[in-house]
Amino acid sequence: MTIVQCDNSFSDQILNIFNEAILNSTALYDYKPRTPPMMEVWFEAKRKGNFPVLGVVNDDSKLMGFASYGTFRNWPAYKYSVEHSIYVRKECRGRGVGKLLLQRIIDTARAQNYHILIGGIDSQNAVSIGLHQRFGFQHVGTIRQVGFKFGRWLDLDFYQLILETPVQPVDG
Q: How many contiguous H segments (helices) and E segments (strands) does the chain have?
């Protein structure tokens, strides 16, 4: 397994992973599969924000999973906080892909001088919650019944990791 920076050439594989999660899980509180034009917009937003799109590929260069982060809230005082996401291809789960991606997301956020990493995780996703807890993320709140999917109400848990960066934060 190798970690790579994903560009548009990975768009179709990322789209497939997103859409499998949308259609079959509560990893995304979304109903409709994403389209190629939506991925173009997504990649452009990542590029403009200088946000990473990291992937783990196997020996055949097949994307096993990907991770990214982006703006947590769009007000200036939140500039040191980002919300991250990790998605692993269904048949690649349980192989350490999420662990590799989360470690690299943490390292990248630190290198980019972010202070807070935030993960919004469905409260029933014990695997993702356990992964985040192993990396030191703390549960900081739950929004009850915030989503409705698959005929039931969904609770969203928030987990955060406080980083020691930036060394000298500034207002403005």
A: 4, 7
Cβ 118 vs Cβ 81: under 8 Å: yes
DSSP 3-state assignment of 23? helix
The CATH code of the domain that includes 145 is: 3.40.630.30
Q: Is the pLDDT of residue 172 over 90?
A: no
Q: Return the DSSP state at 72.
A: S
Domain assignment present for residue 10? The answer is yes
Q: Which domain holds residue 124?
A: 2-162
pLDDT in tens, 39-84: 999 999 999 999 999 999 999 989 999 999 999 999 999 999 999 9
pLDDT at 115: 98
Q: Is residue 170 part of a domain?
A: no
Tell me, what's the pLDDT at 40? 94
Q: Are 15 and 36 in contact (CB under 8 A)?
A: yes
With respect to residue 168, please indicate whether it lies within any of the assigned structural domains.
no
Burial string for 70-98 (b: 16+ CB within 10 Å, else e) reads bebeeeeeebbbbbbbbbbbeebeebebb
Q: Token match 């996401």: residue?
A: 85
The number of domains in the chain is 1
pLDDT given at position 79: 97
| 36 sits in which H/E element | helix 36-48
